[in-house]
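To: structure desk
From: M.T.
Subject: fold request, one chain
Message: Could you run this one when you get a chance? Sequence is below, nothing fancy, just the single chain.
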Amino acid sequence: LDSLHFPVSGTGVQLTFEHNFNLEASDVDPNVGFDGGVLEMSFDGGNTFQDILAVGGSFSIGGYNRTISTDRGSPIAGRQAWSGNSGGFICTIVTLPFLPPGGRFRWRMASDNSGSGEGWRVDTVAITLCEPVPCQPPTPPPRPTPAPRPGPR
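Reply: Done. Structure tokens follow.
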């Protein structure tokens, strides 16, 4: 699943999405997956993609949960990925160091050459550009003007 080109660029960008997966994973080792999903990013308009972690992204919540086995023929063998059963939709937030104009995301699901699981669903994708607002010192409250006192007559 490839995204459209980014509508924003800059620093302080977060990608948020909901997803649900049920992919073949080891029943013996909770760290090993056989089928899995990864998030990749392109800086050249979608010609080439790299893993989100390799380009400097980091997961705030909902990051990869397993490593894909290297002995079953998966195209993403040896990589960290989402695998196993998420138990419903989960939220993932990715903080990006920089978002270039014309870049794209790709949610890539890969399967090995044996059994399979139910699949992977991605929903509710949002890109947020958080620009810091310069801090303004508070304006002091106005001082009350004393009322004139009546003087002697």
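Reply (cont.): The chain has a mean pLDDT of 85. Let me know if you need anything else for the meeting.
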